[in-house]
């Protein structure tokens, strides 16, 4: 219901701003129309891989000891908090400026913006990761330990939270560098990168689930985050990455 409400609110806003015409293509602009839908569906597919990964993790966790699904869910909710507050919020605010700079053929300005954001994000995510790992049990106990949620559940969830938090930096920084690809209208490439990360997550999960259980599933997600960051950085360009931090 919440998702439907969000769509309705955006439709109302589009109509009030008289932006409905952006979805209307003239016959001679068929090429632009095809390009729009191609990028749109590619971006949708790319953004859905995280949900697919969560579904697969839940399915695999159902084969483990009782409570594993809950451990993963609660730990992931805590992990998503700094990711959303810092990484996602930063990428949303940064994207229009990067896209505008690239459209105006001012890549130097875009790189300066990305460098500044990446450094700030690196600092806040590192602090979040260290604090989260140091206070993992306290955080879980404070948020969830009541009723049927016992101290043993706290210990198990805290371990999984640690596994997730190790991947906070790569997931967060990948969002910053993926902005370059989106601004360059390379949504298909970002979708392929997300799909490759998903495949890596599945492979790691199948390898680690037996020896480490739910913690192995969480760490598999972290490893896939490093894969995502590496592939995104490779698409962005290692030379450009070095140049960005060397010259700007």
UniProtKB/TrEMBL annotation:
One of its GO terms (cellular component) is plasma membrane. It comes from the Bacteria. GO terms for biological process: lipid translocation; peptidoglycan biosynthetic process; regulation of cell shape. Pfam families: MurJ. The chain crosses the membrane at residues 79-98, 119-140, 160-182, 189-209, 215-236. Its main location: membrane. The keyword rRNA-binding does not apply. This is Lipid II flippase MurJ. It comes from Aliarcobacter cryaerophilus.
């Amino acid at each position: 219901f919440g998702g439907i409400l969000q769509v309705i609110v955006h439709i109302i806003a589009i109509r009030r701003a008289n932006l409905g015409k952006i979805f209307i293509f003239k016959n001679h602009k068929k090429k632009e129309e095809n390009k729009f839908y191609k990028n749109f569906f590619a971006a949708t597919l790319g953004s859905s891989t995280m949900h697919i990964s969560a579904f697969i993790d839940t399915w695999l966790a159902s084969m483990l000891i009782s409570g594993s699904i809950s451990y993963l869910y609660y730990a992931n909710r805590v992990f998503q908090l700094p990711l959303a507050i810092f990484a996602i919020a930063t990428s949303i605010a940064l994207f229009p400026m990067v896209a505008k700079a690239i459209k105006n053929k001012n890549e130097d300005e875009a790189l300066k913006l990305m460098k500044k954001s990446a450094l700030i994000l690196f600092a806040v995510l590192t602090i979040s990761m260290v604090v989260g790992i140091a206070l993992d049990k306290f955080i879980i106990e404070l948020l969830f330990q009541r009723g049927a949620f016992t101290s043993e559940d706290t210990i198990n969830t805290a371990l999984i939270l640690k596994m997730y938090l190790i991947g906070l930096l790569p997931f967060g920084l990948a969002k910053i560098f993926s902005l370059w690809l989106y601004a360059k209208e390379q949504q298909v490439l970002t979708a392929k990168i997300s799909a490759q990360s998903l495949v890596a997550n599945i492979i790691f999960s199948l390898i680690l689930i037996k020896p480490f259980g739910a913690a192995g599933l969480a760490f598999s997600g972290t490893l896939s985050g490093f894969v995502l960051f590496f592939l995104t950085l490779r698409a962005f360009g290692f030379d450009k990455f070095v140049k960005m931090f060397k010259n700007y």
